């Protein structure tokens, strides 16, 4: 049990992930964007804090390397989700609930997808959980390859560019911000929680 708790902490603690290096960060981003059982992994605040740690010099890679690595991880992760939905969508929809899969996430994402259409792929980049399931639903609905790839690239570029670059320059100009990592995480978690509760209540209504 202690080993499981330690693994869970390592997978969900952004500071631990970032200090593990850029390769680990990209693996987490890839999984969170495309694997339905990885929806719980950190997303928005992981990107922002990666930028902060890059700007303060904790991460040694230049900004362009950080941006490109995370962008590719996000785009390829979503592409994997799309392929899973396109080729295994029916079996996924029949899958029973488990610790790492909740059908309600698929249902709430479907409503979001129906509301915003193709642009859901761009907007959902900034919404946890929905971000993981939107490319899967795009595959299930057999969105054309051209439309998916275009919107996937646009959404990924906006998500990574805004959060990572924003965090990077915050770290450069306000290096003391690294001492308040926990408050940054709480801020993003507050936004995430509010978004999820609002979406859940709307879905129930």
Automatic annotation (TrEMBL):
Q: Where is the VTT domain?
A: 41-168
Q: Which residues form a coiled coil?
A: none
Kindly list the places in or outside the cell where this protein is found, as annotated in its UniProt entry: Cell membrane
Tell me which UniProt keywords the record has, alphabetically: Cell membrane, Membrane, Transmembrane, Transmembrane helix
Q: How does it sit in the membrane?
A: Multi-pass membrane protein
Residue intervals passing through the bilayer = 21-43, 63-85, 145-168, 180-201
Q: Its principal location?
A: membrane
**Which Pfam family is one of this chain's hits?**
VTT_dom
Q: Where does the source fall among the domains of life?
A: Bacteria
Q: Show the InterPro entries listed in the entry.
A: DedA-like (IPR032818), VTT_dom (IPR032816)
The keyword Transport is assigned to this record: no
Q: Which family does it belong to?
A: Belongs to the DedA family.
User: PANTHER family from the xrefs?
Assistant: INNER MEMBRANE PROTEIN DEDA-RELATED (PTHR30353), TRANSMEMBRANE PROTEIN (PTHR30353:SF0)
Q: What is this protein called?
A: DedA family protein
Q: Which organism is it from?
A: Aquirufa regiilacus
């Amino acid at each position: 049990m202690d080993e499981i708790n330690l693994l869970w902490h390592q997978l969900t603690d952004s500071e631990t992930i970032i200090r593990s290096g850029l390769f680990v960060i990209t693996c987490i981003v890839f999984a969170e964007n495309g694997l339905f059982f990885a929806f719980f992994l950190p997303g928005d605040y992981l990107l922002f804090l990666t930028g902060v740690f890059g700007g303060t010099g904790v991460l040694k890679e230049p900004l362009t390397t950080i941006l490109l690595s995370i962008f590719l991880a996000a785009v390829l992760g979503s592409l994997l989700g799309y392929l899973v939905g396109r080729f295994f969508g029916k079996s996924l929809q029949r899958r029973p609930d488990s610790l790492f899969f909740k059908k309600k996430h698929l249902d709430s994402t479907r409503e979001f997808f129906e509301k915003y259409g193709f642009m859901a792929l761009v907007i959902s980049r900034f919404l946890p959980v929905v971000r993981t399931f939107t490319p899967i639903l795009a595959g299930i609905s057999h969105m054309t390859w051209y439309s998916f790839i275009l919107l996937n690239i646009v959404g990924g570029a906006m998500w990574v560019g805004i959060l990572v670059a924003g965090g990077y320059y915050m770290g450069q100009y306000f290096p003391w911000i690294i001492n308040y990592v926990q408050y940054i995480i709480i801020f993003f978690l507050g936004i995430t929680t509010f978004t999820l509760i609002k979406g859940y209540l709307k879905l129930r209504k």
